[in-house]
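Appendix C reproduces, verbatim, an entry submitted by the partner laboratory led by Prof. M.T., so that reviewers can inspect both the input and the predicted structure.
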Amino acid sequence: MNSAAPALTPTTRALAWCLHLLVIGLLSLAAVRAVTGERPHAGWIIVASVLCGLTYAAGPVLPGVRRSRRAAALWLATVGACWTVLLSLSADGVWVAFPLYFLQLHLLPRRAGVAAVVTTAVVAIAGFAVHQDSFSAAMAIGPALGAAVAVAVVWGYQALYRESEHRRRLIEELTATRADLAATQHTAGVLAERDRLAREIHDTLAQGLSSIQLLLRAAERALPQAPQNAARYVDQARQAAADNLAEARRFVAALTPPTLEGTTLADALERLCTTTSARHRITARFHLTGDPAAPLTTAHEVALLRIAQSALANTVRHAGATTAEVTLSYLGDHVALDIVDDGHGFDPTLLPASDPETGGFGLAVMRARTQALGGALTIESAPGRGTALAARLPLTPPSATEPEAHP
């Protein structure tokens, strides 16, 4: 009935109504017995019963009793005073002590509630003994036993209520945690997919457009002195555009790269070297060492092919190399891809920052691909000494990375 008390449920609300009816019934019984029994002070007994009933009925209506323990205590004291007057006039008032036990235990703190119950029981026993003009142990059994039962019932209910509240909070925390986990997993999935899309776009469309740009520049330089060479460059640019269009379509459909359809990784790398040599002023050669103990997974093949595409594109654009050697090696439980060129080289510690206008994402993307499969990427280069890039992948990648190979 106050803010500190447990919230009413349908069950507790029904019990509260039963308690109200019990109080009104016991007060009515005292008044009726006073009239029918022609007891002395019958009028005063009726007045005391009505006053006690009205005081009790005011409790559930007054908002302060529901919100404040102090207001509840004052209300209980007033009800107790009215009950004491009734008890002094009629022995039937002793029965009203039983519902008062429950009210006191429910509305007051534990220690204060127990003290109020003990006081009420003592007053009930003493009042009944006064009306009987004698005292015996039997007179104390009823009120004392009722007080003990009330304490056991109310404390048991409060323990169950605390347990249910604890479980409710746990369920709410679990629900909130599951919602947070779902949101975190969703965010992680979005970031992983965005990272995958960025790598795929860089290694396919961006590199293809860069190759087309180089071919068209070569055609522009060949005109008008060597129109045949210009036409050859334009035809190669057209073929590169067609290849990238196929890449884009399959990329949107999330299918295997076209260069791996119906062929092996070694054949795809050899064809990549041949195409690079035909389209640019560089001789790219492919070498295969070792025999695969088992076919590579799609994740391995896609990663190694993309790394080779990106590395050769960087060699064509930046290295000024005349030759590039691409080697695919099967090393038992590992597979390695090495790309070595004789270009200008660079200082790996002085790489420019990545920029949307100038690029610079290639090495970061290659490193991300190898790390996603539990491998490593190493780069050895120096100004004027060429560049050697090595990607080494275990043949049993972490299971958490497998879904990336099957978007």
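The first helix runs from residue 10 to 36. Additional entries are available on request from the coordinating office.
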